[in-house]
Structure prediction request, 403 residues.
Amino acid sequence: MNSTAFERSSEADRASAKYDVAIVGGAIIGSAVAFFLKRLAPAARVAVIERDRTYEFASTLRASGGARRQFSCPENIEMSNFSLPFIASADETLAVDGEPAHVEWHAGGYLFIVGPGDVDVLHRNCDAQQAHGVNAQWLDVDGLRARFPSMSVDGIAAGVLTPEDGWCDPNGLLQGLRRKARALGAAYVDDRVVAIDHDATAVRALRLASGAILRADVVVNAAGAWAREIAAMVDMPLPIAPLRRFEHYFETPTAIEPLPYVKDTARLAFRPEGRGYSGGLVDSSEARGYNFDVDHDYFERVVWPALAHRFPAFEACRCRRTWSGLYEQNELDGNPVIGNGSGRLANFHVVAGFSGHGMMHAPAAGRAIAELVVHGRFESIDLGRLGYTRIAAHAPYPERGII
Ligand SMILES: Cc1cc2nc3c(=O)[nH]c(=O)nc-3n(C[C@H](O)[C@H](O)[C@H](O)COP(=O)(O)OP(=O)(O)OC[C@H]3O[C@@H](n4cnc5c(N)ncnc54)[C@H](O)[C@@H]3O)c2cc1C
Prediction:
């Protein structure tokens, strides 16, 4: 499909709720796709079908807001190289009628620290990031001690600091993308997709819970942790599972130096937030499922010991709030699926499975899908290796930047 095809759309199509592109899921990924589609092909009729306009259970509203360039796969580094500056200037880019978005970007930096067993991986990752123009600074133990005096380097062999990384308000970015996409003409439909009409070669229409049928030339699956259920509607196996993760807000009375977003070998990850800190510790062995229950002992039992071990100033910290959310975990390799299936259903695109990085990569992923839909190929970043082909072939393409 190309942009002139959009311009040929007939009035008859408009009258019968026929869209050029229908996006299933209207949180941060779906809204980023809608925004970039409308920017690339202003005449395209774009519908975003979102079942809950409050986004109560959407991962986006439960995210920590971290955005970094510290990855191993060139695709992920490049997606960050585009997405982070986009987020940093999103207040202006996403302004509507002079009213800015409220993304609250904070370039506080990211710090990865590892033990002796992971030094080689960290080194390779740092080299890869630098080769892609990232300001990634290698820190040995003395360097870490000098830079972060409150940190215990017990068991730590090295670290990498990327001072231009940071964090933002995920809801601010979502609302900014959504508002701008609507201002550019995208329609948000408050409904739930319950089935997808398709034949052997193409997707034809979405069936909604209200009974409405919405025809579309292209369908994009941006349903996050629910993406597997949407894919199953067209008999497409997708190894994306909901993985519960807790996020905590905590405070400590002991004053310490300003910290970046710290990621430890124990998968402890936290950053400053207001008067305190926000973060958590991912348990990858957690049973998969749509479970939002909060284990209020988790902080005391798991997070606090790891935190106090690494930063003794947190011995006296108090957890003020814990919430749960879902990672949309790609069980094959922890990387997203971006693109369509080969040989079948060429007009059905997946953009899901970000496994904990969907907020930071939403701008690049949205632009990539827009390019694929409008031009039939990735133009800015070649994301071919993240397509559905590797899923069908059971050929993992793992990210080694998640240490
Ligand atoms: C605790 C936690 C911390 C995180 N921290 C970070 C971080 O620091 N940095 C980062 O980049 N990422 C982080 N993430 C991951 C990030 O939140 C996700 O990758 C991202 O939000 C995925 O966005 P999404 O739009 O694909 O999914 P979601 O936000 O889950 O949106 C999916 C949408 O699809 C809708 N939907 C589902 N099924 C249907 C249907 N049948 N019909 C209509 N609509 C449907 C849902 O209602 C929902 O609104 C974190 C996640 C969690 C849980």
Q: What stands out?
A: Residues 7-15 have pLDDT under 50 and may be disordered. The first strand starts at residue 18 and ends at 24. The CA atoms of residues 16 and 77 lie 42 Å apart. The chain is about 30% helix and 25% strand.
